[in-house]
Specification:
alpha/beta, single chain, Glutamyl-tRNA Synthetase, domain 3, elongated, 10 strands, 10 helices, 3-stranded antiparallel beta sheet, 290 residues, Rossmann fold, 3-stranded parallel beta sheet, 2 domains
C-alpha cells in the first residue's frame, strides 16, 4: 500500500491564526490517523505579500501546539526551476500560451462587469492580437466536466472552460500562480492527501486539470469547515483575526480545544501533545462527515 503523505502549506503573510490552526490540525490528524507522514511547506511565492519573520512565527506556533512535522521545510521561493519546467512542458504540449490582456480588458469583456472572476473570453488563445505584448501565461482549459471526490463534501464537478475559461498559471508581475505551484509541489513531494480549508474547494478542479495535463498523480482531497467571524465571513489574517496566543499555557490549550471542536472533536484541555493523541482516537469522526 502507498503510505499516506499529508501536508500543511501556509502563506507567510502574518502569524498563525485560528483558521489556519484548524487547517493544520485537520491535516495533521488525517495523516497521523492513517499512519502517514505530515509535511510543512511555506508558500512564499508572492513576495510582496510576505511579511518578514512570519514564516518562523508560524513554525514556532506549530511546535507550540505539538504539531511536529516530518522532513525538511520546503519553501516555494526556492523552487522556481520546477515551476518553469512544468510551464514549459505545458507549452510543448500546446496547453499554455502567452496572454496580453490586462485586468481592465477582462472586466470590459465580461458579461457581468463587477464579477470577481470574469470568464476569460479567449482573446489571446490563438495568438497575441496586434499591438499587444505578452503579460501572463494561461492554461488552455479542457472543455469537459471534471469530477473529483472530496472526503467531506462528496462529489464535486466543474467545466473549467465554462466556469472561468483559460486561467493564469504565471502572472503578469512575474510569480508563478498558486494553481501551478501547488500541483508541482504536491507531486514532487509525494503528497497523497490534501486536507485544507474549504475556501480552496473551488481551486480543486483546476488543480486536477493541471495534474492530468502534466501526467501527475491526483491526491485525495478533504476540505475542512471554515472559521467564520460574527458577520459570517471567513476569519483570516486580512480580516483582522488575532494571532494565536504564544505564551499563556491555558490559552494555548483552550485555543487548541477550540480548533478541535470546529473539526467536530471534543477533548478535555490538557498539554497539546496529549490533546492531539486523544483527538487521534476520534479522528475517524472527521472522515465520517463525507
Amino acid at each position: 500500500m502507498t503510505r499516506i503523505v499529508g501536508r500543511f502549506a501556509p502563506s507567510p503573510t502574518g502569524p498563525l491564526h485560528l483558521g489556519s490552526l484548524v487547517a493544520a490540525v485537520g491535516s495533521w490528524l488525517f495523516a497521523r490517523a492513517a499512519g502517514g507522514r505530515w509535511l510543512v511547506r511555506i508558500e512564499d511565492l508572492d513576495a510582496p505579500r510576505v511579511v518578514p519573520g512570519s514564516a518562523d512565527e508560524i513554525l514556532a506556533a506549530l511546535k507550540l501546539y505539538a504539531l511536529e512535522w516530518d522532513g525538511e521545510i520546503v519553501r516555494q521561493s526556492q523552487r522556481s526551476s520546477l515551476y518553469e519546467h512544468a510551464l514549459q512542458t505545458l507549452r510543448t504540449r500546446g496547453l499554455a500560451y502567452d496572454c496580453g490582456c490586462s485586468r481592465g480588458d477582462l472586466q470590459r469583456a465580461a458579461s457581468a462587469p463587477v464579477s470577481a472572476e470574469p470568464i476569460y473570453p479567449g482573446t489571446c488563445r490563438d495568438g497575441l492580437p496586434p499591438g499587444r505584448a505578452a503579460r501572463a501565461v494561461r492554461f488552455r482549459a479542457p472543455d469537459q466536466t471534471i469530477r473529483v471526490h472530496d472526503v467531506i463534501h462528496g462529489s464535486i464537478e466543474e467545466n473549467i472552460a465554462e466556469r472561468v475559461g483559460d486561467f493564469v498559471i504565471k502572472r503578469a508581475d512575474g510569480p508563478y500562480a498558486y494553481q501551478l505551484a501547488v500541483v508541482v509541489d504536491d507531486a514532487e513531494q509525494g503528497v497523497t492527501q490534501v486536507v485544507r480549508g474549504g475556501d480552496l474547494l473551488s481551486s480543486t478542479v483546476r488543480q486536477v486539470a493541471l495534474q492530468r495535463a502534466l501526467h501527475l498523480p491526483t491526491p485525495s482531497y478533504a476540505h475542512l469547515p471554515l472559521v467564520l467571524g460574527p458577520d459570517g465571513a471567513k476569519l483570516g489574517k486580512r480580516d483582522g483575526a488575532l494571532p494565536l496566543p504564544t505564551l499563556d499555557e491555558a490559552r494555548v490549550r483552550n485555543t487548541l480545544a477550540a480548533a478541535l471542536h470546529i473539526l467536530g472533536i471534543d477533548v478535555d484541555a490538557a498539554p497539546p501533545a496529549e490533546m492531539l493523541q486523544m483527538a487521534l482516537t476520534r479522528a475517524p469522526e472527521l472522515h465520517g462527515k463525507s
